[in-house]
Amino acid sequence: MKILGTGSALPKKVVSNDDLAQVMDTSDEWIRTRTGIERRHIAVEETTTSLAVEACKKALEQSKVSIDELDLIVAATVSSDYIYPTLSCEIQAAIGAKNATAFDISAGCSGFLFALATADAYLRTGRYKNALILGAETLSKMMDWSDRSTCVLFGDGAGAAVVSAEGNQLLGMVQGSDGARGTVLKCKNRPVHNLYKQEAGQSLAYSYTEMDGSAVYKFAVRTVPNAIANVLEQAKVPVADVKYFLLHQANLRIIEAVAKRMNQPLEKFPTILEECGNISAASVPSLLDQIHREGKLSKGDKIVMAGFGAGLTWGACVLEW
Ligand code: UT7
Fold first, then answer.
1. Ligand 1 centroid to 27 CA: how many Å?
2. For residues 159 and 287, what is the distance between their CA atoms, to the nearest angstrom?
């Protein structure tokens, strides 16, 4: 497979750390020093679908693949606007990709890596030729805004890529899951509401994101360096040959710890979390789009992309640009 185009989108409304400190007991100093996040974009007028469509249109325009040539859409999200129809079907309708098969993937913040792995597998079989893959989230609607330890970390956004079966850009891919540890980062679906199960005092209120931040932090700093080492070994690429490591943008301290464990300079780890916080499945493709549009990728460059998050799940790949 080969990436032919990338795109990303953020909501218009920018919320700084100081803005949050106006409405909850937090401070710019706490958020910056613990996470590196300076602001995030929160969807007010936008939806997960509208952000995704904006990112996808940019990726398609750059790719020069026509809408009719698109035969697969894989959207990674945990915050689609509807439970059904899926986000990918909403995108299909919005862009008029009538020849595409469309479905969603739910793998938390690893979602884009899982979408890439899925598209690659389909493209290798020859069943499809041109895929649109993306991560899009409006996590703001899933936050408990009275839980300062979690809500300050997340934001909304979307990132997309058009990938074609022609080319051999993907040199290696690893994925993993550990459902037994899934309770450290969770958000319950709608409560059971049926004719046969009603308990006195039962609440039909929705749940919001609950996270054991310290457990997720430890999981990330142990798992990500291992996943990257494994994928580099699989691809037979020495770590020193990697130009950029595009990590899921959760927390600058996690990125610094991974760089240290891998004995690699922090300059190889570009970031966007200062601007948008943790945008889950949208973070890796949005970061890829940023460095791509800045002209930082040249033919032959080797880059690693790695995601980790709810499930627990993780994924890492090596690409040769
Ligand atoms: O995609 C994966 C998503 N998950 C993550 O990225 C989470 C990874 N984990 C982390 O990034 C860190 O664990 C956090 C940033 C969430 C927390 O950092 P920490 O250094 O582990 O802080 P803490 O939870 O130990 O809290 C330290 C103190 C507590 O006060 P006390 O008990 O020491 O008095 C908290 O109540 O900081 C307090 N605190 C806050 N203070 C101001 C927690 N949240 C805030 C806040 N503002 N927003």
1. 12
2. 8
- The answer to whether residues 143 and 39 touch, using CB atoms and an 8 Å cutoff, is no
Atom number of ligand 1 nearest to Cα 214 = 13
The 10s digit of each residue's pLDDT in 41-59 is: 999 999 999 999 999 999 9
**CA separation for the pair 110, 127 (Å, rounded):** 25
Give the bridge partners for 317, in sequence order. Answer: 173, 305
Please identify which residue in the block is written with the tokens 């990697």.
242
Sign of the alpha-carbon torsion through 53, 56, 61, 66: negative
Q: Report the distance separating Cα 47 and Cα 270, nearest Å.
A: 27
Alpha carbon nearest to ligand 1 atom 35, residue: 149
pTM for the structure as a whole? 0.95
SS3 content of the chain, % helix, strand, coil (to 5): 40, 25, 35
Among 10, 288, 248, CA closest to 161: 288
Give the pLDDT mean for 200-209: 82
Question: For all residues of the chain together, what is the average pLDDT?
Answer: 96
CB atoms within 10 A of CB 293: 14
- Grouping H, G, I as helix, E, B as strand and the rest as coil, residue 66 is coil
Q: How far apart are CA 260 and CA 257, in angstroms?
A: 5
Q: Give the whole-angstrom CA distance, residue 258 versus residue 270.
A: 13
187 catalytic? Reply is no
Cα separation, 100 vs 120, in Å, equals 15
Cα-based angle 254, 179, 279 (whole degrees, multiple of 5): 40
